[in-house]
Amino acid sequence: MKTVIAACLCLFSASAWAQAAPACPTLPANAGLQWEQRADASFIACKAVTADGRQVLNVMLTSRDPKIRLERRLREEESTFSGEEIYWYKLDLGGRDMPGMESRRITVVELDDDQYAQVWINADSAEELGSMISLAQQLDVRAASAQLSAGN
Questions:
Q1: % pLDDT > 70, the chain
Q2: DSSP letter at 141?
Q3: pLDDT digits (tens, 9 = 90+) for 50-96
Q4: With contact defined as beta carbons under 8 Å apart, do 77 and 114 qualify?
Q5: Under a CB-based contact definition with an 8 Å cutoff, are residues 62 and 43 in contact?
Q6: Residues 24/46, Cβ–Cβ less than 8 Å
Q7: What is the DSSP-derived secondary structure letter of residue 138?
Q8: What are the strands of the beta sheet with 43-49, ordered from one edge?
Q9: How far, in Å, are 51, 77, 120, 134 from residue 48 at the CA level?
Q10: What is the spatial distance between Cα 92 and Cα 64, in angstroms, rounded to a whole number?
Q11: Cβ distance 75 to 86 under 8 Å?
Q12: Three-class SS string for 47-106?
């Protein structure tokens, strides 16, 4: 009987923790992706993964300024993310031109109340890049960001 009670308590604790953990933003049903999530008191990391396990979009929410310097010369697409106007930037590889990097992007978005979102796109092609930019425009991270704020 004690084993059954202990097992039930463990299941309840795991269930309660899962409900308390901040959630990644909702992905569109037709995206064909699922989130892998990691969170603690200071950040929420969400990795959108394809059915074959490839990470194509990463979102990290934090209350700390990431202090990532995004140079104007690397600026590419103008867009929006969670209601904020943004630019996507090519990755700075120290002047090196590496194959496959032309369809990868990064941005940092300052949200309300000193909350930041760092967003990376790891597309395999220009077509997938366009698709991921469009997907990122649909994401709303404000609820997850608010949960992060409440936890601090």
A1: 76
A2: -
A3: 999 999 999 999 988 888 889 999 999 999 999 899 999 998 766 66
A4: no
A5: yes
A6: yes
A7: H
A8: 34-39, 43-49, 55-62, 115-122, 104-111, 84-89, 75-81
A9: 10, 21, 10, 14
A10: 22
A11: no
A12: EEECCCCCEEEEEEEECCCCCCCCCHHHEEEEEEECCEEEEEECCCCCCCCCCCHHHEEE
Residues 38, 39, 41: CA angle, nearest 5 degrees: 165
| HEC profile of 27-62 | CCHHHCCEEEEEECCCEEEEEEECCCCCEEEEEEEE
Tokens describing residue 145: 């960001």
- Residue 69, token pair as written in the block: 């310097």
Tokens of 108: 């940092």
3-class DSSP state for residue 125? coil
- Domain around 60: 2-151
Q: How many CB atoms are located within 10 Å of the residue 40 CB?
A: 11
Q: How confident is the model over 102-132, as pLDDT tens digits?
A: 899 999 999 877 789 999 999 999 999 999 9
Closest CA to 125 of 89, 107, 97, 99: 99
Quick check: helix, strand or coil at residue 136? helix
Structural domain total, the chain: 1
pTM: 0.78
